[in-house]
Specification:
Distance between the termini of chain A: 57 Å
Largest sheet of chain A: 6 strands, mixed
Cofactor (chains A, B): FAD
Number of domains of chain A: 3
CATH topology of the largest domain in chain A: FAD/NAD(P)-binding domain
Domain FAD/NAD(P)-binding (chains A, B): 5-325
Family (chains A, B): Belongs to the NADH dehydrogenase family.
Largest interface: A-B, 16 and 15 residues
Oligomer: homodimer
Strand order of the largest sheet of chain A: 5-2-1-9-22-21
Number of helices of chain A: 9
Number of strands of chain A: 28
Pfam families (chains A, B): Pyr_redox_2 (PF07992)
Radius of gyration of chain A: 22 Å
Keywords (chains A, B): FAD, Flavoprotein, Oxidoreductase
Helix content of chain A: 25-40%
């Protein structure tokens, strides 16, 4: 009998968790496992704001996929996914087609611009390693150019961050630490630099504990960040952004750097493949299967699950993606072995820590609020845990964050 | 009796040499010495190609002027020189006017574009610290952007260097070492990168020993540099450059980075002040005085002296500027002390070394040709010597180059 083909699309938190668990759980003779990813490396999406600000080198944020997979069991294919053909049980890649018996779609998120004009053209998004290092270099080039112009253009020293959600706030924390370094590097007067955060919602970190939100905002404000809360971006232009002001008025905020950190959506391959979805996220069964496709599992940012306690979807996080990856591996192994009863997913919320730069953070861990250096410490524990779950202690030693003190 | 005012314009090799020698030679009661410079730091002009390529940090290339002047004797004024009014014996700065009894004009060079269209707008010049770090960041940003575009634009990975004189060749040597690092940093295929040097003269390093020119060119060619010798740049555009091809034809070389390293001229303050000059260089007396102005000394890149052996002007170098600075200080001290007989300048040519990157070079030292690591070693000795002459052993220890092996 032919071994079943298991195809995993994406080597992010979810996909790589599935691959590394399956290679432990299944014998060489039980299945062929294929892992498809655009790059030959995995990157820590939740650390990209650091690489974007330039406070952590992007090579610290990524590692070779080959270093965590067992090549006796998993075949790695570096390619881009175009489309899933669920009827014919195959995946169309840029370079080839792959037939599957079991498919895991773990393609992660894309930036969502909500149709705001100009964002795609004139704003950066913190979405991958390529983008992160481009943002870092773009900002640095603005500072490097400042003293070379006859008429000094202060908008070169202005950075607008669109969105005060987790990514926005964490990026602001890094920027606030990075800007003094940039000022020193390029002999720029610190007081000429502006970091402006524009958020349409009535609060930063919507849904987060108000006390922690206050802490985060006043911490960042003390470090020079200017918040424009309850302010919607109407348009991005080559000169900056246009925001709504009152009912009918608009205001221009000039800035040579605009980073859009306000929205993510599931990968557009989801819609291209005909899955029913909301912003690229498929409402999956509790077993993580796509509705109507018992051989297709969708996990991570491309999946949508309802938190029944509050009747709202769980936000897409690395934590949930990895937990889904674990269960997904288990369920696929069960199917491969002919078991029909699959396990259902329950989210074990270990808490959330939002970094405010290297030495401060706010968070709720095991139900307890923490701030300051204790929270910053916990953030590093969380970051190292992701490495540990996928690559074990060796990966933690290689890529972990140990600047604890 | 009022002490005479000695005003030194420029804290480059020449000006700083005058200031540091005068502060040793004159007592506090003999003269008031003013040193005027745009920045509060001195930079090693001859190291700027390294900062521009990104192989040496720009902070290594500069030091605080205050660290080498004796503030009991020299008053430092950070300001920009607008004009010298030799009739009224005063200097007009942006922020104030300064009367002088003795003036030293040591304002250095500017980039000379020979009227080639577009060079000012679209090409960089390796002319100061601000420009150097902008070039470094510009190149880096091109590499950082490469993988972010749907359609890869290979011209982002192309660097045109206009001119194969000393600056051009030395910059190429650094670039050839830097490019593999950039490729690694941004996951760029090394073979896609092009470094093209365009030189209008019939040879690289015109006037230099042909055997050494051959060595330099073939060394750089082995490292991937493409030479277009005997090719004149007609125009720089936002896309690259237009060069002459044959009699009437032109050819476009597309490149997102164009660095113009083919010409320097004296500071334009020279002409603004009404001194008779050729490209900003005043043909000075052998005593270094400006013709007709016995109280004005002009040294370094703003001065022009004929090498009588070959009846051609000495090229403007740091070596000659420093030697002129030494004599200029001596002559001014003599005038302050009422002596009328001034010394005449004779150039003591210690040789020339042209760097080809960190570990190779070509040169003639004490009349002997050298290449390879020996020449690279000598280049560092030359670089350290400039520090030693101005700031003594302390400055060499602080800013010297000791990566000898």
């Amino acid at each position: 009998m032919k071994k079943p083909n298991i195809v995993i699309l994406g080597a992010g938190y979810g996909g790589l968790m599935v691959a590394t668990r399956l290679q432990k759980q299944l014998g060489v003779n039980e299945a062929e496992i294929f892992l498809v990813n655009k790059h030959d490396y995995h990157y820590e999406t939740t650390w990209l704001h650091e690489a974007s600000a330039g406070t952590l080198h992007h090579d610290k944020v990524r590692y070779d996929i080959s270093s965590v997979i067992d090549r006796n069991k998993v075949t790695f294919i570096q390619d881009s996914v175009q489309k899933v053909n669920a009827e014919e049980k195959k995946v169309i890649l840029e370079g080839q087609e792959l037939a599957y018996d079991y498919l895991v779609v773990a393609l992660g998120a894309e930036s969502e611009t909500f149709g705001i004009q100009g964002l795609n053209e004139y704003a950066f998004s913190i979405s991958n390693v390529n983008k992160a290092r481009q943002i870092r270099e773009h900002i640095e080039y603005q500072f490097a150019t400042y003293h070379n112009e006859e008429e000094k253009d202060d908008t070169r020293l202005r950075i607008v961050v669109g969105g005060a959600g987790f990514t926005g706030i964490e990026f602001l924390g890094e920027l606030a630490n990075r800007v003094p370094e940039l000022c020193k590097e390029y002999d720029v007067d610190y007081h000429k630099v502006k970091i402006i955060c524009v958020e349409a919602a009535p609060s930063a970190l919507p849904g987060f504990d108000p006390e922690l939100v206050d802490y985060a905002m006043s911490y960042l404000e003390r470090k020079g960040v200017e918040f424009r809360i309850g302010t919607a971006i109407k348009e991005a232009t080559p000169e900056g952004i246009i925001v709504a002001k009152g009912e009918n008025e608009v205001e221009e905020i000039k800035a040579k750097t605009v980073v859009w950190a306000a929205g993510v959506r599931g990968n557009s391959v989801i819609e291209e493949s005909g899955f029913e979805a909301m912003r690229g996220r498929v409402k999956v069964e509790k077993t993580l299967q796509a509705p109507g496709h018992s051989d297709v599992f969708i996990i991570g940012d491309c999946s949508l699950m309802i938190n029944e306690e509050i009747n709202r979807p769980y936000p897409p996080t690395a934590q949930i993606a990895m937990q889904q990856g674990e269960l997904c591996a288990k369920n696929i192994a069960a199917l491969v072995r002919g078991k029909e009863q699959l396990e259902e997913f329950t989210f074990d919320n270990k808490g959330t820590v939002c970094s405010l730069g290297e030495d401060d953070a706010v968070g709720i861990v095991f139900g307890k609020k923490i701030v300051g250096s204790k929270a910053a410490f916990m953030k590093k524990v969380v970051d190292n845990r992701a490495l540990y779950m996928i690559g074990g202690p060796g990966l933690v030693l290689k890529k972990g964050k140990f600047n604890f003190f």
